[in-house]
């Protein structure tokens, strides 16, 4: 039972490149969210999903796309990477309560 | 969403009890109070959640006064491994856009 997994663990991109951060869960939880955390800061919500086929924007959605075709997976796409997107990205899942979330180990992204 | 205020940092020593207070003056009737712990290079970890009075689990206690305008996370007999950032969150369990804020950076010394 892996819980919440994220790949890759580390990634370096050049400005303008695109990529997809993967998030997968085997907890069968409906709610999934993506956060970013800049150094010394709290987490900010990018996008979230309450179930397969349903997604919505969080606090900082610009520059990111998501889709949710299955319960298990919730990929985050960076359309055209910018240095301002250098951050640690966390995926989180929860049953039906956003306040009891389980977080993945994170992906550390650097955009040069 | 109710705004929360908590100290930026706190220091303590091993074996002491640590209390971190969070202010949430605009808490709504349906809001719960939730605390998370985050170690360096890891995702946050749910610690405890409560609505009123006192909640206790194997990790911490949460004290909530009758007016619910503040709450206190209590960590008994801390160790070096309790050094982390602690976040106080307030909101309705159905709220989709929860706000983590900057948290309280707790440092435990030998």
What can be said about this structure in brief?
The complex is a heterodimer of chains A (112) and B (110). With 112 residues, chain A is mostly beta strands.
Topology of helices and strands:
The complex is a heterodimer of chains A (112) and B (110).
Chain A: E1 4-7, E2 10-13, E3 19-25, E4 31-37, E5 43-51, E6 54-57, E7 64-66, E8 76-78, E9 87-94, E10 102-103, E11 107-111
Parallel strand pairs in A: 2-11
Antiparallel strand pairs in A: 1-3, 3-8, 4-5, 4-9, 5-6, 7-8, 9-10, 9-11
Chain B: E1 9-13, E2 18-23, E3 32-38, E4 45-50, E5 53-56, E6 61-64, E7 70-75, E8 84-91, E9 104-109
Parallel strand pairs in B: 1-9
Antiparallel strand pairs in B: 2-7, 3-4, 3-8, 5-6, 6-7, 8-9
Q: Shape of chain A from CA axes?
A: globular
Whole-number mean pLDDT of chain A: 93
State the end-to-end CA separation of chain A.
36 Å
Per DSSP E runs of 2 or more residues, the count of β-strands of chain A stands at 11
Q: What is the helix tally of chain B?
A: 0
